[in-house]
Design a protein that fits this description.
16% strand; eight-stranded mixed β-sheet; 18 helices; single chain; alpha/beta; six-stranded parallel β-sheet
């Protein structure tokens, strides 16, 4: 029996550092492997020439630091190139990795041959398609060497594959629901997601809340949207307590004596309210902030100087999966006061590592946390403070939350995720 062939967009999978959509893509590939599908990745490396298979593979996985600088790189030329694809389909270069050794710092290199079988590369296809759609509302058509049965977009891109069923994952509609928290061009976002929602053969949603938003804003029929939620990575990471002690000491943290925050530093994550809350609790606890400084981060972190002294917090920026596992498993709790989430992966990750969670009572977060977490009004720092102090005063409650958290983790397990995905795909091909 012929295997179902699926092409997945690789924009986020190709990022050097993590993101929520990258993790989603990684768990998606894990599920496809369990389902026995043949998988290809659409990449956009602009240095692949398509003249020699070996050199194409080497170029694809080479270091960015030694890429050649183009002699001519004028904005006008880039715009003319973008407009040229209004009239013709873009053609891919097929790459079947078999020469290069796995790069542990490059996810797609590391899982080559295990989680996917081939790559279709089209130079700068994602950004070019976005620019073309923004200016003309034209969708970029691509011509592939290996025809897929399904083209799965892990987030909407204005790209189509003729003859393939299109599946698109919509994680959230945050720019439309809480516009003050993002820098997106809202008209472009609305039109792009409208096109994706209306033309896709199947929409996957990561929560019932997001499904409701899609139906409300775009009028999509309920039967077209399947809620699969998402799963977690790192189930095979075992935290060595000796290593953990050394790591925590290097970060000036003490086990179960710090409150953890995980997420990009931007308005939606609402860390400024957590900072205020920590200012009013027992000073025997530090605030450990794991997150990249993103848009409008300074307005979120201004309270660090106003409410906390330097000894009361640690900024950790980006950490590896292993380091994050250490931080989760040794934290007193993880606090996630987000204003809006399509899913809220840090809540699930924390429970996975036996870390009690205090989180916002908004959007999809109650779907993830269930009865295993303490909920707060994210607009009230006093509510966050009260729940942290409640947990500090009640060790039995903390243990109960950890136990209930494992039940939630089982619901979102990779095995259950693969089953939900399989059910969503039934009848598509």
């Amino acid at each position: 029996m012929k295997k179902v062939n699926i092409l997945v967009d690789g924009f986020n999978l190709g990022l050097k550092k993590g993101s929520g959509i990258k993790t989603y893509g990684m768990t998606l590939l894990d599920a496809y492997a369990a389902m026995g599908y043949e998988v290809g990745i659409l990449m956009d490396n602009k240095y692949v020439a398509g003249k020699d298979g070996l050199i194409d593979e080497v170029t694809l996985f080479d270091q960015d630091e030694i890429r050649p600088v183009k002699l001519f790189n004028f904005a006008l030329l880039r715009k003319l190139k973008t407009l040229s694809f209004y009239f013709r389909r873009r053609k891919g270069t097929l790459i079947v990795p078999k020469i290069t050794e796995p790069d542990p710092e490059n996810y797609l290199s590391h899982v080559s041959g295990k989680r996917y079988q081939y790559i279709e590369n089209i130079a700068d296809v994602f950004h070019t398609a976005n620019r073309l759609f923004a200016v003309t509302n034209k969708v970029t058509q691509i011509k592939l060497n290996h025809q897929p049965d399904i083209f799965h977009l892990t987030t909407p891109w204005p790209i189509q594959v003729k003859g393939a069923k299109t599946v698109v994952t919509i994680h959230d509609l945050i720019p439309l629901k809480v516009p003050f928290t993002t820098l997106d061009m809202k008209v472009h976002f609305y039109e792009l997601f409208k096109w994706a929602a209306q033309t896709a053969d199947l929409i996957l949603s990561v929560s019932e809340h997001t499904k409701k938003d899609i139906m409300e804003i775009y009028g999509v029929p309920e039967e077209k949207i399947k809620v699969t939620y998402q799963s977690y990575k790192g189930a095979d990471i075992a935290v060595n307590q000796g290593d953990a002690a050394v790591y925590l000491q290097s970060k000036k943290l003490e086990s179960e004596k710090y409150i953890l925050f995980v997420g990009n530093i931007e308005p939606k994550k609402n860390i400024k309210q957590l900072i205020r809350a920590v200012a009013y609790i027992n000073k025997g606890y530090k605030l450990a902030i794991v997150g990249h400084k993103a848009w409008m981060s300074e307005s979120q972190l201004v309270g660090l100087k106003g409410y906390l002294s330097k000894k009361d917090y640690e900024m950790l920026d980006y950490v590896t999966e292993e380091e994050l596992a250490i931080l989760y498993s040794n934290a007193f709790c993880m606090v996630f006061p987000s204003l809006y989430e399509g899913f809220g992966l840090p809540v699930l990750e924390a429970m996975q590592h036996n870390c009690p969670v205090i989180c916002s009572d908004r959007s999809s977060l109650p779907e993830v946390g269930g009865d295993a977490v303490l909920y707060v009004d994210p607009y009230k720092f006093s509510d966050i403070r009260d729940q942290i102090e409640k947990l500090m005063a009640n060790p039995e409650l903390r243990l109960e939350m950890i136990e209930k958290g494992q039940q939630r983790v089982a619901f979102f397990s990779p095995e259950n995720y693969a089953k939900r995905l399989q059910e969503a795909y039934e009848g598509l091909v």
